Amino acid sequence: MTQSVALTIATSDSGSGAGIQADLKTFTACQVYGVTAFAALTAQNPDGVSAIHELPADFLRAQLNQLASYFNISAAKTGMLFSEPLIEVSAQLIAERKIPTVVDPVMVSTSGARLLKESAIEVLKKELLPRATLITPNLDEAAVLLGWRPENPSQMRDAARQLNQQFGAAILLKGGHLEGNQLIDILQLPDGESVEIASNRIPGVDTHGSGCTLSAAIAAYLAQGKTLIEATQKGHAYLQQGMERPLQLDNKCFIRHFP
After folding, report:
1. Is 136 helix (H, G, I), strand (E, B) or coil?
2. Buried (b) or exposed (e) across 78-92, using 16+ Cβ within 10 A?
3. Digits of tens for pLDDT over the chain (259 positions)?
4. Which of 141, 153, 217 is closest to 182 using CA atoms?
5. Which candidate, 42, 68, 71, 171, has a CA 20 to 30 Å from the CA of 140?
């Protein structure tokens, strides 16, 4: 069986719930061949991050050059990139190779650890986000990018349109940080079309890695040739399935990755 190739440019999660480890699990489950470029390493588990080791930008560039010289990369996703030089190297590869890319603008972990240097935010906005095919911010990340935080579905619709106008990319604004059990994600396309994806909050499941899993699944389906709407809907369904039928480990429930 011939498989498409998807690339993740992100950071290692030593607990394997998020980051490159979650991306590879997702790629495999979605039946694409995953290749990796590491931006940083972390010492973490689902409860928190105790240390971050940033890798040299030249080493990230070397990884990307080796991958791009051998593999026909059909789609990519970026996760935690941490610093200005790592963002710049990633953006350069995406621009040069014209790879359809899902950018998960990882800034702060659920546990509160800062995963993007404050000084790197403007570089992210200037260099990487305008080159994305799809940007997948949660509400807190949208607040950093916009300067205000959406607090309800109506404001989410306005925010998604503003982000699209600001960066030119499609936007998937995730509503998981809203109150209540009825959730909504909003996909805003550059042509003005908007698609809303509704779901119910699933109690009792640790959501660590949910953003990584979603963006990786969308990238996997883009690599397979799906349209952006199809890839987003299928990626959302993949994440929901993994939370509805979670993996039980040490008396906790985590997102399951299905083949």
Report:
1. coil
2. bbbbbbbbbbbbbbe
3. 789 999 999 999 999 999 999 999 999 999 999 999 999 999 999 989 999 999 999 999 999 999 999 999 999 999 999 999 999 999 999 999 999 999 999 998 777 778 999 999 999 999 999 999 999 999 999 999 999 999 999 999 999 999 999 999 999 999 988 888 899 999 999 999 999 999 999 999 999 999 999 999 999 999 999 999 999 999 999 999 999 999 999 889 999 998 7
4. 153
5. 42
Q: Which residue has the tokens 């986000």?
A: 129
Quote the tokens at residue 214: 């979603």
- DSSP assignment of 203-235 equals TT-B-TTHHHHHHHHHHHHHHTT--HHHHHHHH
Tokens representing 205 are 């499941």
